[in-house]
Specification:
Layout lengths: L12 H36 L2 H36 L1 H10 L1 H23 L6 H30 L10 H5 L4 H27 L4 H32 L2 H8 L2 H26 L7 H25 L3 E3 L3 E2 L8 H7 L6 H10 L12 H4 L4 H15 L12 H4 L5 H9 L1 H4 L10 H14 L8 H23 L1
Antiparallel strand pairs: 1-2
Helix pairs in contact: 1-2, 1-5, 1-7, 1-11, 2-3, 2-4, 4-5, 5-7, 7-8, 7-11, 8-10, 10-11, 15-19, 17-19
Length: 477
């Protein structure tokens, strides 16, 4: 059974999820990497009795908590809210498959929150050894959360040899888990160093000695992060499924972005090495902002590529993008996609009672007897449930422009062979009658061939002549 659809006009629901998730990733990775860097640097400052460094780290901890705990929590809830509306079946599946994993993650999340506040608000009230231990408790808890969530989201890209009969750990240790943990660990350390640079460049503007010390020490964390991002990203690419590699190879933009992420990581590594590490004193607001933007670009690009490679399945080979289990597709193709949903049957029974049988099933022969205008309306319902999660009628990924200039036969052929026409799309999950209905709707959206396209205009004119001739011959008969 498919779920009620959630319509986001022009922008589409997946893009809204991507926007919120990307903002959250920028903060959540800092929550992990920043915790490790703060714990490490606080421990070192206590051992060396570096009071100025400890004073700076205390001010940075407040900035860290406000951004990661407050803003990070809001965007984290936003992700759950949007995926629950846009991809309810995938969300349900991930909860059921990884119920114990989520339980562990929530426990460690609570430990994170408590230890973060204790670390900050009891600064100076705890002995150095206990205070440093609290910092490490936060860092370890945050990192375990990253490991758990990364394994679960990696499962969406490649389920490996998992089947519903196998347990959670088989699903968790899929081919993508370790490479993505490595890449995200690197991104966490890299972003943490860049956040600290950004903060220190403004906070320590008048303290050249302390600013140089901060940039020199933090540069080691950043270089380690850049190296892990590069190694993890390469390992990720080697291990992705063949369909994902084909999707990347077939999208020139993704190929360019893949090259850019490795280039950006290398640039940041060498800038850190030859700048703050070898020659401290470079750090200023402009330099820190440049570093920060490069890190954000590299991280955001990596997340975009990961999402682009995951099509057409919200959970690879298990849940399709239109919220249907792969195992349900043959049944829906036989009995009808609209017949597979409680909501669709109820709506059509109310609108077209003559086309719904007494037992509540849709009579498709009657549906095809409806006037064309009504068939278009039924086709719109099909679009909303079957296609709306990736496409809009107009705007981003809008069908009006994607089918511009297409004939009715072209639309019909693509509809019935979705995964053949575009291998990154799920199969058509409806029956033949529904293919006719959705074709009528898409044809009503399709824009004409742009003016000035000479060959297309001549071809269209010739087809129109042929069509008119056939109509006259039929009339004569």
């Amino acid at each position: 059974m498919h779920y009620p659809w959630w319509y986001v006009p022009n922008f589409t629901a997946p893009m809204l999820i991507a926007g919120i998730a990307t903002i959250h990733v920028f903060v959540s990775l800092y929550a992990v990497g920043g915790g490790i860097v703060l714990a490490g640097e606080v421990s070192h400052a206590y051992k060396s009795n570096d009071r100025p460094m400890l004073d700076y780290l205390r001010t940075h901890t407040l900035f860290f908590i406000l951004l990661t705990v407050v803003f990070g929590a809001i965007t984290g809830v936003g992700i759950w809210w949007t995926i629950g509306l846009a991809s309810p079946l995938a969300t349900e599946s991930l909860i059921h498959i990884f119920v114990f994993g989520w339980a562990m993650e929530y426990v460690f999340f609570v430990i994170e929150i408590v230890s973060a506040f204790v670390f900050h608000y009891y600064w100076g009230r705890l002995d150095p050894k206990t205070h440093a231990a609290i910092g490490w408790i936060y860092a370890i808890s945050a990192y375990i959360s990253l490991v758990l969530i990364t394994g679960i989201t990696a499962f969406q890209l490649d389920i490996g040899n998992w089947t519903p009969e196998k347990g959670m750990w088989t699903a968790f240790f899929n081919p993508q888990t370790i490479p993505q943990i490595m890449a995200r660990s690197g991104a966490a350390l890299l972003l943490a160093s860049l956040y600290i640079y950004l903060h220190a460049a403004f906070k320590l503007r008048n303290d050249v000695h302390l600013r140089s010390l901060v940039e020199n020490r933090v540069s080691k964390w950043g270089m380690a992060g850049a190296a892990l991002v590069t190694a993890g990203g390469a390992w990720w690419y080697v291990n992705i499924p063949e369909s994902a590699k084909s999707a990347l190879a077939g999208a020139s933009a993704l190929n360019i972005l893949t090259a850019l992420i490795f280039l950006a990581s290398a640039v940041v590594f060498f800038m850190l090495y030859f700048g703050p590490y070898r020659h401290p004193g470079w750090l200023n607001p402009g330099f820190a902002i440049l570093y920060f933007l490069l890190g954000i670009a590299a991280t955001g690009t990596g997340e975009f590529i990961r999402e682009g490679a995951r099509k057409p399945y919200i959970v690879y080979n298990y849940v399709t993008g239109n919220n249907v289990l792969v195992s349900e597709i043959p049944k829906l193709q036989a009995s009808g996609y609209l017949n597979g949903g409680v909501w669709t049957r109820a709506y059509l029974k109310e609108q077209y009672p003559q086309a719904v049988t007494k037992d509540g099933n849709i009579d498709y022969a009657e549906m095809l007897k409806l006037p064309v205008a009504e068939q278009v309306k039924v086709g719109k319902v099909l679009f909303q449930y079957h296609c709306n999660d990736c496409h809009s009628t107009n705007g981003f990924s809008g069908l009006d422009r994607l089918t511009q200039g297409w004939t009715r036969d072209m639309i019909s052929t693509v509809v019935t062979h979705l995964n053949k026409a575009h291998y990154f799309m799920p199969p058509w999950c409806g029956n033949d009658a529904e293919a006719v209905l959705i074709t009528e709707f898409i044809q009503s959206l399709s824009e004409p061939t742009p003016a000035g396209m000479k060959f297309s205009e001549e071809e269209s004119s010739e087809k129109e002549k042929t069509s008119n001739l056939a109509a006259r011959e039929e009339s004569d008969r």
